[in-house]
Amino acid sequence: MNNQERHIVTTLVFLMLLLWGGFVWHRDPNFPSSFSGGMVGILATIFMFAPLFYLVIKRIKPIKKWMVKYVSMPKLLLIHVYAGVLGPILGLVHSAHKFDSSVGIALTFLMLVVVISGFIGRYILSLISSRIRDKKELKGELESQLIFAKKELQRSVCSTRIKKLTSTSHSLVRSFSTMFGVYSSKFSSEQRVLRIIESISDIDYSIKIHDTAKLWFKRWLKFHITISLFLYVLLTFHIFTEIYFGLRWL
């Protein structure tokens, strides 16, 4: 999900929360059972069941292998996200803030939990994954610099030994100045190697922290899937009762 898509989804989530909070000012008990309300409810149901197909496709390999020939998984995920937000928005419009039944209240609550948990899980997980990629790239660059710095240090050590052997043939002042310059170069190379090693160590620790956070948010996504299944069960029950007891606008 790129930044533009993330902004759109964020706006839709805030719109959903705004619509939910509208029950303070607006209620229409007749709209859900009207023709218009029923059409909005049917459309909301279609959008709300659409994300279920992504969950099935992702976890059943034969279906996934066949589907990716026509639609890529990132596009299916994008459909999953948009439909997962638009469905509850239309569901809230369909309810017209008529929260009189326990089923309606439970559906509304589960819709909000599913959308918010999915949004938080997906947003933070993608952010963590992006950070991990950046840090691994930086670690690779530092490891390349470390190899070069070690070679520089090795050359400095060899140069120091050569200067020690030849320093007796020079004047005392020149010998000391030469050796001081060589040791200074060696010390600088050692410091650079130590700094790079310290930076790599810090990045390794940061990657471990990000990996732990990623593991926890994968568990968060499992919670999101579990709540979604409860929502589908309750939504199916709601649809069944509406059909069984009759649609008053027919």
The number of strands is: 0
Spans of 5+ residues with little confidence (pLDDT < 50)? 165-183
Taken from the alpha-carbon principal axes, the silhouette is elongated
Range of helix content: over 70%
Largest sheet: none
**Please, how many helices?**
6
Radius of gyration: 31 Å
- Succession of helices and strands: HHHHHH
End-to-end Cα distance: 42 Å
Domains (count): 2
In short:
The protein is mostly helical. The protein has helices at 3-21, 35-59, 61-67, 73-95, 102-166, 172-245.
Fold and architecture overview:
This protein is an all-alpha fold and 250 residues long. Helices cover 85% and strands 0% of the residues. It folds into 2 domains: 3-126 and 222-245; 136-204. α1 packs parallel to α4, α2 crosses α3 and α4 packs antiparallel against α5 (102-166). The longest helix is centred in the last third of the chain and has 74 residues, at 172-245. The two termini are 42 Å apart.
Characteristics:
250 residues, mainly alpha, 6 helices, 85% helix, elongated
What's the arrangement of secondary structure elements?
Blueprint: H1 3-21, H2 35-59, H3 61-67, H4 73-95, H5 102-166, H6 172-245
